[in-house]
Design goal:
Residues 1-31 have low confidence and may be disordered. The chain has a single domain, classed as Glutaredoxin (3-Layer(aba) Sandwich), CATH 3.40.30. The chain is built from 5 helices and 7 strands; from the N terminus they run H-E-E-E-H-E-H-E-H-E-E-H. The protein is globular. It has a 7-stranded mixed beta sheet with strand order 2-1-5-4-3-6-7. Strand 3 (62-67), helix 2 (75-86) and strand 4 (91-97) form a beta-alpha-beta unit. With 184 residues, the protein is of the alpha/beta class.
Length: 184
């Protein structure tokens, strides 16, 4: 019996390790998780130490980007085109999942955010916002939220033309008109 257990234990361990999803093995295409049906509020502190509170009903349709350090590199691919198309006709909220940061390094990370970003970024030290929104780790998670808090769409990963087109159509369906293009 002991010999059988000694033989099976390494095999079970190897099977468990190979069954885990490794970040490198994840496909490059956008991953879609099931977002919550509704979001209520976003409460915390930003990188400047200011209290941050955003509650529904939101004044405008809201685009939330939520990313950890690895996913943050994908954020500009979503936000840049949305800002170019809609400007300030929609609201943007950036949430940084910094729950992996050891408590002794928090002030240094907060300082780096202050240096890099002038717009407030909600710093999620506990990871609670990521859990609540069912975010995909190591990816930028983009949520389109109606003023009543209903989550209309979620995309995770790199932005691509097809996904951006769907987001543009969705936002326009909420009555938001693109900003006029000024000829140069």
């Amino acid at each position: 019996m002991k010999a059988l257990l000694a033989l099976l234990a390494p095999m079970c361990l190897a099977a468990a390790v190979f069954a885990q999803k490794h970040p490198v093995a994840q496909p490059a295409v956008a991953v879609t998780n099931r977002p919550p049906a509704v979001v209520g509020e976003f409460i915390g502190k930003d990188q400047f130490g200011a209290d941050f509170r955003m509650e529904k009903p939101f004044a405008k349709p809201l685009v939330v980007t939520l990313a950890d350090q690895r996913g943050a590199t994908q954020t500009d691919g979503w936000v840049g085109p949305l800002v170019a198309k809609f400007g300030d006709r929609i609201s943007f909220l950036a949430v940084a999942d910094v729950s992996a940061v050891p408590s002794g390094m928090r002030e240094m990370i907060r300082q780096k955010f202050r240096e890099k970003y002038s717009r407030p970024t909600l710093l999620d030290w506990t990871g609670e916002t990521s859990k609540r929104l069912n975010a995909v780790r190591r990816r930028c998670n983009l949520y389109v939220v109606a003023p009543d808090g209903k989550v209309l769409a979620m995309h995770s990963g790199e932005a691509d033309e097809a996904a951006l087109g769907k987001i543009f159509t969705l936002v326009e369906g909420l009555g938001v008109r693109p900003v006029p293009v000024v000829p140069q």
